[in-house]
Amino acid sequence: MSALGDLQLRWAADEDAPAVARLSKEIDPDMDETQAGLAELFLHSPAEARRTMYLARQGDRPVARVRFKSAGELAWAWGIGWLPALEEGHRGPGWAAQDGTPAPALAGLVRALEAQARGAGARRLTVELLDPQVPAFAAAGYRPSKRRVEMAAPLVRRPVACDRPLRPPRPGDPAEREALARLLYEGYLGSVDQDGETEEVARAETVHVLDGEYAPFLAECSMVIEGDGGPAPAGPALSGLAGAALVLREGRSLSWLAELVVHRGFRGRGYGRALVQAAMNSSLDHGYEQMGLVVTLGNMPAEGLYRRLGFREEGEVQHHYVKEIA
Ligand SMILES: CC(C)(COP(=O)(O)OP(=O)(O)OC[C@H]1O[C@@H](n2cnc3c(N)ncnc32)[C@H](O)[C@@H]1OP(=O)(O)O)[C@@H](O)C(=O)NCCC(=O)NCCS
Questions:
Q1: Domains in the chain, ordered, with CATH?
Q2: Can you give the pTM of this predicted structure?
Q3: Spatial distance between the Cα atoms of 47 and 54, rounded to a whole number of angstroms
């Protein structure tokens, strides 16, 4: 494989479904889905998944796939996968040469991704990587920011203790959407999960979740705790809700805790635990067997809470690396 000055990243349109499916099979030949099944899945995947799928091509041949999005000065890439052939040119184990030089094709992939991000007006690119993908990006000047891991728990019904009204959210009610957007923005501010997003970007994220653009939103399995409209017992003004757990449908038997936030002024009173347990009970009522989530390692309040409710790590650690690309 030659050095990849010629590697192009392009958004995957409907007609690229067969190419996406073929590439996914080539990257992971052991996956259960057939190629035709994968193409169907791609065509029917939620809006955000369709909007963010890009193929890297060498000439006409797709050689890598990347999920990419940008908002203002920030850009993100995740779900990265490439053909084993792209590793040609490395001299040691793993994807990079022993002296830390990545295979030329992988350096080309990193460059194509950065060109895409710059073209979108971004100044900072955050990439989510699996272990073996780290060297190619580290060699290109990316620095580690955080590590995240999936957790899952069998759904177990337990009593819920909460001294404020706890109920499913109303995603169709504009006032509630506004309250949720504010709660999530304010709740994540200053936390390990905040990557410098503007309020506008953070709000758009909440809308994506509520509108099912990542996966179908399960209002009936989600939960909010009402504030009383007055000031929070401590901290900044109350946004109208004291906390929320937003849940998606990830599979036939798997519900997914996409967001969990308790307003700063209400933390340490058991509301986080109540929200997750109530969401677990409700998921059970709706026929789900397991709940999954992703947590940032080192987020002690969240990690501790999840562990006590039976969540355990599953799968590989996702490494987040960042580079200023302006
Ligand atoms: C994580 C979060 C929702 C917890 O909410 P909370 O209402 O304070 O949680 P609870 O009061 O129910 O506490 C849950 C458990 O965590 C423990 N806990 C709370 N703060 C803690 C801390 N700083 N360190 C370690 N454990 C802590 C509590 O002791 C409690 O344990 P227990 O159930 O055995 O008594 C809240 O801190 C938050 O909104 N954080 C910012 C957003 C975020 O990180 N969300 C998670 C994304 S994965």
A1: 7-141 (3.40.630.30), 151-317 (3.40.630.30)
A2: 0.90
A3: 14
